[in-house]
Amino acid sequence: MAAAPTSDSPPLDAQRSEQIETALRRWAQFDANCPAQLGEAIRYSLLAPGKRLRPHLVLLAAEACGGAAAVEQALPAAVAVEMIHAYSLVHDDLPAMDDDDLRRGRPTCHKQFDEATAILVGDALLTRAFEVLATGIQPGERAARCCALLAKAAGPEALVGGQADDLAAEFRHIGLERLQSIHRRKTGALFRASLELGAVAADGSAEQRQALVLFGEKLGHAFQIVDDLLDVSGNEANVGKRIGKDRHRGKVTYPSLLGVEPSRRRAAELIEEACQAIDSFGAAAQPLRELAEFVGRRSR
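Structure tokens predicted for Farnesyl diphosphate synthase:
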């Protein structure tokens, strides 16, 4: 019998989780033209144990829009999002970026292999993500929309731009508005894209997409606040990465600006607002609400 979920365990459907893992493994196989070490390093980074929140968001959004039948249609988008997320972590961990040596409870890619390999792993995952979308999403017009959507979320005005501003802000005083701008792009963009990709893959309506994007906006903001809180008071074994590193690197965080308790309250407010954003879906969005509530629990 499976163990009962704990406060650290997201309420994720086991069958859906296995679908995601199977698809990730399939798309992480390459022919003989891919050097053996590169392929190994890609799989090491992509298949590392993780909660897969973003691919689950893709599939839950698809299901909310189109029912269970839409989940299979959205699976390539779920894989693509996780590849973008994994690439961003591999590059963020590099010495020239956030300089981390632990990720998901294991040595980071550049520590397990080397820096050059880690850079190439990120390059490979970034490009593979769009191959998966272009060949896996049907019809072609829908695939093109998904490619454009994910490229925007991963690009210089979103994820990459947020990371650039985050690095530039180290050891500098920035206010709350600037901090929110950084994380709206660095963290929030991929949350929003995950929800919208699921809706597009399921051919959801404009109203459904709008509600899901707002849900993703609120959830991504809450997730970052919780992440900052975990860096202050989390358990390293549970978090799976070094804690206390934000202060060491001179990063401005929500707890450093607002305080720990006000940050917790703000995260809770955002989770409530996220759940309200998808009221129109009724019972179909209950798994999304449960996932949002899990994100909030992680700060305790």
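The chain has one domain: 14-297.
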